[in-house]
Amino acid sequence: MNYYSRIAVPVLLISCLFTTQAYAPPPDILWYEVYGGTEEDYGRAVCQADGGYMVAAYGSSFGAGGDDVYVMKINEDGDTLWFKTYGGVANERAFSIKPTSDNHYIISGFTSSQGSGGSDVWLLKVDENGDTAWTSYFGNLTWDAAYCANETSDNGFIVAGMSTIYGYGDQLFLVKTDANGDSIWAKAYGGTDQDYGHWVKQTTDGGYIVVGRTYSYGPGLCNGWLLKTDANGDTMWTRLYGGNGEDLLYTVLPLSDGSYILVGGTDSWGAGLGDVYVVRAGADGDTLWMNWYGGANADQGQHAIITHDGNIAIVGYTYSYAVGESDVYLLKIDLNGDTLWTTTVGGIYHDFGYYLDQTPDSGYIIAGRTRSWGAGQSDVYLIKTGTDLGAAENEGRDISTNPTVFPNPFSTSANISFGVDSRQYSVGSMRIYDVAGRCVKSFDPLPYAQSPMQITWDGTDDVKNMLPNGVYLLRLTAGEHSETKKLLLIR
């Protein structure tokens, strides 16, 4: 297998990265790697694994024939530990990989080499070394594919995808299996046109929430589709989202209050030919708010996660803000849909992000594909970011009172108000750090006070030198507990 070395971060930042900031800086890019041969290869999903990462991909550079599924284990620096292919003489593709409760990994996709039809839903379970534990196939005599598989509370799996049924077109398809991959039930949903299930998750009531797209229902060419089922796959309710254009949903994130975040793409609304589309839906699927993100050209969200600090990180692609043809698009929003930061990564040709996970250091690992680098027509593309500084912002909030800063951003001075509650020690400290982690200003020691205290910072360091514009981190500490707040200095 061919793979290519990381390019130094300063070069990447100068030549390949465009950043649009809100009130927080995006994380730095630590490294990126490309993997592949001389043909078309795609990175589709990634998850954490023993301090490194497991990657699901597919392509035609390696394997038995046609497209084959690739699974590789890499370390935290992106170095390949092992690489394996799965498939036969026809085409196989993988679209998701997830860790399981028994320290294995479940991969979903389709196979045209095995099964009963043109292609079948393919569920593949492998161990930590990539050795096959079992495989399962589901489908009929036509075309079937799985786009997502998640473990359920009984250690089985719920699988979402599509199935072509004669007389009905492509239908959204769900399969529930036991822990060995044997089918418990399989059901199809949809009309006479094309309908797809892209993500499924078990809900707290034992049922399932499914998101996808439908060409059979709704006012537009295509509409986002959310389905709630019971534990047996019977429909409880469905909702449509979108306008008169083409609207797609690829991820559903259940929130603790029973609502859902839905992420995909829209060309019904927004600024350009297509935009990242986000909907927050209530527990009954009704729209609480919707928003879109992007520029004058085509942009789309492909996958999203809930971050360590309770916000939403989204990965996809952008033609609007790209250095080249298209770039990987990474953005973070809060639960009200407000943008926290955005960034793009890529070269002079086409680069796409398909999947992300948050890492223990509160950074992100992203899987996608690139035509800007590598040996082939398209290569597997992995990107590792540094720490998302917002991830630790609310650390210890249940212990320390929340500091407030006004104004923020500020130009001449900022008024910092805070208190230390009665559970804390009588002496605390307040320090201000730059984004490199250097303490530039110290207000030590701080006496204990029952009422809120207020300190004014004029944007200077400990020797009264004026500090440059930028983001600074306020760290309030009392005993073993601390809290962090971002400050933005703009003169």
TrEMBL record:
It comes from the Bacteria. It holds the Pfam family Por_Secre_tail. Residues 405-488 form the Secretion system C-terminal sorting domain. Coiled coil: none annotated. Residues 1-24 form the signal peptide. The keyword Lyase does not apply. The keyword Chaperone does not apply. InterPro entries: Secre_tail (IPR026444). Keywords: Signal. This is Secretion system C-terminal sorting domain-containing protein.
